[in-house]
């Protein structure tokens, strides 16, 4: 199977980083269910004793910044150097690293919590178990995990970015039970699932999970 998805995703987000950053600017202000999910995640991190939290596939870093505002020691990782440049520009006090969730450059058990918001959507089915294995590897025992994604059962291809430039990226829409099944296979316990906008055209979901103790 071709693995150009990784380089295609990186180059697409490099091309579209300014347009994407503008599109999502202020997004959380109009998303109460996402804000509530992030507040709950922050509480779980605090309950776990605090410590570093990785926002994997952080894009322009607004979720990383929101977690920081909630008292979480959050840092961001993204495969796109252009996204990371925007995240550093917009959140100069925070740490952002270029990296891929398929091979996280983090020591085993080195983060208290891990969040992946609408970034696993670009990982094809065959690579998801490896990515969730990475999440488990870097999480401290019993650490909280929060995954957000598009709900559905289809793959959508995008060939034009928000500024009209050509890109080449797939987004995989998945039923929550499929994500939950992969997480359980990786050793996680599912603690909660929330479907947001089930009656809308493009529902989303967040799954709260916990690594093995
Ligand atoms: C839809 S955006 C989501 C960004 C942000 N988390 C948000 O909620 O707005 C997907 C992000 O995941 C990043 N990404 C995709 N594949 C990745 C990978 N293998 N490793 C790290 N980041 C990745 C992209 O570069 C992009 O910034």
TrEMBL record:
It holds the Pfam family Methyltransf_25. Residues 53-143 form the Methyltransferase domain. Keywords: Methyltransferase, Transferase. InterPro entries: Methyltransf_25 (IPR041698), Methyltransf_Superfamily (IPR050508), SAM-dependent_MTases_sf (IPR029063). One of its GO terms (biological process) is methylation. GO terms for molecular function: methyltransferase activity. Its EC number is 2.1.1.-. This is Class I SAM-dependent methyltransferase.
């Amino acid at each position: 199977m071709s693995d150009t998805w990784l380089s295609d995703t990186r180059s697409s987000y490099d091309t579209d980083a300014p347009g994407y950053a503008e599109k999502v600017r202020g997004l959380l202000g109009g998303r109460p269910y996402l804000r509530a999910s992030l507040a709950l995640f922050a509480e779980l991190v605090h309950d776990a004793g605090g410590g570093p939290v990785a926002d994997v596939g952080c894009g322009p870093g607004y979720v990383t910044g929101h977690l920081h505002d909630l008292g979480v020691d959050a840092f961001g990782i993204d495969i796109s150097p252009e996204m990371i440049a925007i995240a550093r520009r917009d959140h100069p006090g925070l740490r952002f690293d270029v990296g891929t969730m398929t091979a996280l450059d983090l020591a085993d058990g080195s983060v208290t919590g891990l969040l992946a918001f609408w970034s696993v959507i670009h990982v094809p089915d065959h690579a998801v178990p490896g990515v969730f294995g990475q999440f488990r590897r870097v999480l401290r025992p019993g650490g909280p995990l929060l995954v957000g994604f598009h709900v559905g059962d289809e793959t959508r291809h995008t060939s034009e970015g928000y500024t009209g430039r050509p890109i080449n990226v797939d987004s995989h829409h998945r039923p929550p039970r499929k994500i939950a099944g992969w997480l359980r296979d990786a050793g996680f316990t599912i603690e909660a699932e929330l479907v947001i906008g089930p009656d809308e055209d493009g529902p989303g979901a967040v799954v709260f999970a916990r690594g093995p103790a």
